[in-house]
Amino acid sequence: MKIAFLGPHASFTQLAAAQLFPDNELLPQASILDCFNAVENGEAVKAVVPLENSIEGTVSMTLDYLYKTPSIKIEAEAVMPIAHHLMIHPENSIENIERIYSHPQALAQSFHFLDTHYKEIPKQDFSSTAAAAKFVSENKDTAIAAVANQFAANLYGLKIINRNIQDFEQNHTRFIIISKQQNMYQNDHLETLGEKSGMLITLPEDHPGGLHQVLSVFAWRKMNLSKIESRTLKTGLGNYFFFINVEGPWKEVLHGNALKELESIHANVDFLGNYKEFLLES
Ligand SMILES: O=C(O)C(=O)C[C@]1(C(=O)O)C=C[C@@H](O)C=C1
Which residue numbers mark the site Essential for prephenate dehydratase activity (predicted)? Predict the structure, then answer.
């Protein structure tokens, strides 16, 4: 079975995918969109993509493609500790760094460190932390640095000049397994943190109390919401869809009266799956 992931090798997403699928072929992709496309067109059966970080919040691209690709569902969530390091080519020195590259999430998670110690040095977005590390290793003649993980430093032969530069020591990213089936991924070797359901909800038009009505469907049934995120529909200011997580196994309830109630207030519900959350090692 082929599993797509945001590459190249030694990205955080690969570290997550390797723990979730130790016996499968991992296919590196250049972007989160490519991961969705690989699953959509059958090149890969599943993909692992980042969804949310404890410092920087939601990975909006993942949320957008979940919304845009209704055939794609969620099979599991996995939380992994994230440590960022600043690294350079071993033939370069720290004094002459002219630019720092990384994934925008990694730059944002290390913003205060970089702003305090490397304020004047331009930062530039890259498709992933590992892609930035690879680029630094291939360009020893330019004085550049990357924010990436220990595995990237080892794989691409880079020297770490600052360790653990994330702005909060406790830094975790939540990844999801996506696929076109609606399976519940199981793994007895990983610690399970809980079970939840995910859905995307859109309201027909902005009206007073619309979101309140949706939330009350869950509140009256004492269903605990563990996440609610609004994201622009891109059709105009004020138009949103909502990504909602409800704790526990509750699919039966949703397909019963709760779903009818949501329909009666003209809410559109795209059920993403009933899945478990696992804990990964860094
Ligand atoms: O750039 C990487 O290495 C990734 O796997 C992406 C990503 C993300 O998008 O959140 C994954 C984990 C970290 O939060 C930083 C970057």
Answer: 173
